[in-house]
UniProtKB/TrEMBL annotation:
HAMAP family: Eis. Keywords: Acyltransferase, Transferase. This is GNAT family N-acetyltransferase. GO terms for molecular function: aminoglycoside N-acetyltransferase activity. The active site is at Y122 (proton donor), F407 (proton acceptor). The lineage of its organism: Bacteria, Bacillati, Actinomycetota, Actinomycetes, Kitasatosporales. NCBIfam families: PRK01346.1-4.
Length: 407
């Protein structure tokens, strides 16, 4: 490892970094895709691991903000992590992550995040699964049975070229209602959400966008979906995103999707775990959760700043003994005093009420995992009875965190 040095990859080095990424991910994309990746990387910070002049590892981070309970935080969103097959398991990734943490601290970003290619990689670096997604399938060969009356405001299809402005207005106004969501630029809307050809399935139609709301009034909800039909199968509606301001508006959008002629199935990926659909669907044989997966992994790079930056639902006053072998400044006993009025987190000599690993604290940070569940799983130790009950009441958020932008 002494022969490896870490430094920024200049813009002129992006093509080389991409070649390394394509090698590591076993990809050989077409020119258009390469150009898209190149453009994305120009907007990222880029850490390279070099042996002499040879690039042997690479990590990029989007400079997104991510919503947290009560607000949002700057957050390097890590992507394209690649190590040359000749240099794997020699600590290259570990070195790049250490660089990432040092830069995040210098830039005043209390948290970092990523989507993991493999579940086993990132826990050791203190990342915890902070949001989860559901895959939901709906049998739409019959009308969607609902327990509530759908909103009767009009639905209209929107040209995808006009959609970013319309949808962004709604998304930006509502995205902090759930923790775990990123800010989206116009380019992100166009190139990640509304791109003409689906990158995984070329049988799918271009994106279709349906919105609900009074004509010329503000958008009250929307769905982005693609379709495909096959002779031997009921046609498919592949839902990419559905957002609505009320359950009735969501019900209207779901019912619309379930009623599209020549289709008989909806497959929705990345739905919130507490999607209201799962409660207002009248027939859960018709609406089934077919998968659950970890979505956003979060790292509390600066535990104090991260905890003091989120809102707290109830008063709590406890001493946490945090284990963190990658960022020693986070480790040790700290008194967390929080309430809806604010939070302080300071080193203390007082005995611990709860011992917890930083990765598990990160899993609870956005409100998606309960500390009681950590104790129940043997991952944290409650020294003072009542600690996790109080902590969970304080960490609680009205809605579960949710991340659907896989970067
Ligand atoms: C956010 C994203 O971009 S996710 C994409 C991740 N990239 C990929 O999957 C592409 C293909 N894989 C790779 O490029 C590399 O194998 C990487 C990036 C996953 C790992 O890089 P390496 O330099 O080999 O990791 P490094 O040597 O620092 O390993 C650190 C530790 O993680 C462990 N580890 C590394 N990769 C894996 C893995 N895939 N599964 C389980 N453990 C792993 C190592 O065994 C090591 O454990 P130790 O500390 O107990 O010895």
């Amino acid at each position: 490892m002494d022969s490896i040095h870490f430094r920024d990859i200049p813009e002129t080095g992006i093509d080389r970094a991409l070649s390394l990424a394509y090698l590591a991910f076993h990809e050989n994309p077409e020119e258009e895709k390469r150009k898209h990746h190149h453009d994305l990387l120009r907007g990222c910070s880029r850490i390279g691991a070099y042996e002499g002049d040879e690039l042997v590892g690479f990590l990029a981070a989007f400079p997104f903000t991510v919503s947290v309970p009560g607000g949002e935080l700057p957050c390097p969103c890590v992507t394209f992590v690649s190590v040359a097959p000749t240099h794997r398991r020699r600590g290259v990734l570990s070195g790049m992550i250490a660089e990432l943490f040092a830069r995040a601290a210098a830039d005043g970003a209390p948290i970092a995040s990523l989507w993991a290619s493999e579940d086993a990689i990132y826990g050791r670096f203190g990342f915890g699964s902070a949001t989860f997604g559901h895959t939901v399938e709906i049998d739409s060969r019959r009308p969607l049975a609902l327990r509530i009356t759908p909103d009767d405001r009009p639905l209209r299809l929107v040209d995808p070229a006009d959609a970013p402005a319309l949808l962004a207005a709604y998304y930006d106004a509502t995205r902090t209602e759930r923790a775990g969501r990123i800010d989206r630029t116009e380019a992100w809307w166009r190139e990640e959400w509304l791109v003409e050809k689906d990158e995984d399935d070329d049988e799918l139609s271009p994106p279709r966008v349906v919105v609900i709301g009074e004509p010329r009034g503000p958008v009250a909800g929307y769905a982005i979906y693609r379709t495909k039909t096959r002779d031997d199968d009921p046609g498919l509606v592949r839902l990419d995103e559905l957002e609505a301001d009320t359950p009735a508006a969501a019900a209207a959008l779901w019912r619309y999707l379930a009623s599209i002629d020549l289709t008989g199935q909806i497959r929705a990926w990345g739905r919130p775990v507490d999607d209201p659909l799962l409660l207002f669907a009248a027939d859960r044989d018709q609406v089934r959760v077919t998968g659950e997966f970890p979505a956003l992994w979060v790292r509390l790079v600066d535990v104090r700043a991260a905890l003091e930056s989120r809102s707290w639902a109830a008063p709590v006053d406890v001493v946490l003994d945090v284990r963190d072998d990658r960022v020693p400044a986070n480790a040790g006993r700290h008194r967390l005093t929080a309430s809806p009025d604010g939070c302080t987190y300071a080193a203390t000599e007082d005995p611990a009420d709860l011992t917890v690993d930083v990765r598990d604290l990160a899993a609870c940070y956005l409100g998606g995992t309960r500390t009681a569940a950590l104790v129940g799983a043997g991952l944290a130790t409650e020294h003072t009875p009542g600690t996790v009950t109080a902590l969970d009441a304080a960490l609680r958020t009205p809605r579960l965190p949710h991340t659907v932008d896989a970067f």
